[in-house]
Fold this sequence. Notes:
Blueprint: E1 5-9, E2 11-24, E3 31-44, H1 45-54, E4 59-66, H2 69-80, E5 84-90, E6 96-102, E7 105-112, H3 124-131, E8 135-139, H4 149-157, E9 162-165, E10 179-180, H5 184-190, H6 199-214, E11 218-222, E12 228-232, E13 238-240, H7 253-266, H8 271-287, H9 291-294, H10 316-328, E14 333-338, H11 345-355, E15 360-366, H12 368-375, H13 384-392, E16 399-403, H14 409-415, E17 419-423, H15 439-443, E18 448-452, H16 460-477
Parallel strand pairs: 1-4, 1-8, 2-6, 4-5, 8-9, 9-10, 14-15, 14-17, 15-16, 17-18
Antiparallel strand pairs: 2-3, 6-7, 11-12, 12-13
Helix pairs in contact: 1-7, 2-14, 5-6, 7-8
Amino acid sequence: MRGPVVVVGxxxxxxxxxxxxxxxxxxxxxxxxxxxAAIDRPGGAGLAAVFAAAQGAEVVLVTALAxxxxxxxxxxxxxxxGVQVYPLALSGATPEKIRLRAxxxxxxxxxxxxxxxxxxxxxxxxxxVIDAASAVLVSDYGRGVARQPALRAALAATRAPVVWDxxxxxxxxxxxxxxxxxxxxxxxELVPALPGASRLATASQGAQGLRRRWRAGAVxxxxxxxxxxxxxxxSTPLVVPTxxxxxxxxxxxxxxxxxxxxxxxxxxxxxxxxxxxxxAEASAYVAGGGVAAALPPPVRPVPAGVVGPGGDRxxxxxxxxxxxxxxxxxxxxxxxxxxxxxxxxxxxxTLQAARQLGDCxxxxxxxxxxxxxxxGPDRPVxxxxxxxxxxxxxxxxxxxxxxDEPTPDAALSWLRPDIWVKGGDYATGGGDAATLPEAExxxxxxxxxxxxxxxxxxxxxxMIARSGHATGACCAAGRPPEPARLSxxxxxxxxxxxxR
Length: 500
């Protein structure tokens, strides 16, 4: 493949709430579900992207993320699945679909998130990645991303094969897509069938109607357990049956079908070959247990509220409120991050310098698990709650959030800061802001990275080492330890961790 597989569309947060039913509600004849577990996963275009990434492909997801806890959760889940998120701003709330289940059966689905929000403008980087794609899947869930004019222009201009998975409330496919993949009910809504027509005739008429209306190369109508019907220009429809009986949870089967077809086209398959591969993949997916068996275990939920007694400036909810206020006034969002294990003067200098670059400063803090993975089992010295509380108490910090991953990429994809600040001796080692590890992520939405000055000689690692040495010497002499004294080294080559 010459480039990544790019998925474009609306992402939802899906949640399966598992429980047991042992009684009826006393004030209404409905079952009471006692929750035993809850599993979050990306839905919509996000699920299609996760399926493609699970097959080993490099996958880019162009989607809209809201400034709320649901958006933060989606960003973390997608990053954990290996999906590169190129986010657009989303006005409104993250759409959520919550399925209440007992003994493998869905009792009720609860949807929330309100009316579709308005996606923001794509950055130049988004348009470039679409142009360089090996295949593009438009996974439309009728919430606005597929209507975005600049995205539609890029989709119409790309040389990559485009697969369009439509939604009845969504827009028409851009002219010239290689393959559209509606299901039976979507075809009936988009192209009314002739009265009295058989099932296959209805699917065939709808597919041909869509193909002509959208000027698509081919349309494959998915038929559930009966496979798919493929219509090309001027040819007899091709029925692609399933390889065997496939009974089970069909949630996500359409996304699996569209993702498999896109991957096959990216690898040079003919449309007919891609549809056959997609039918086989979707059938195996349903037979294998559906979405619950196909996805890896979810990561730990992003902390949504206040961590410990840090006040109302700690947690995703606090950050979301701040983002909404600053962006509503046209302000500049600045962010920085690190472990901040033993807050010292070097940290404070970096944070003060960062705050001067915009209208708010958000600090992304590695969780305890993340610090241990990066620094070893003896770290952190202070818990994530204490570290967050200390940072939030600084006048130059407007809000603090904790992230669980080794890097802040997922948090950044949700925050979309205008400026990401790095402190320390990075520049003295020959690097610059453009080569920071986070710079590539910031470019996805047009953000910038900067390096600010640091106070020489301040290092958390060195502080811990010197403190341990002083403690050991004092104990050996039979006297209580004295506080460690810090002295700045004579040159910038002192090394160690400067501002993390």
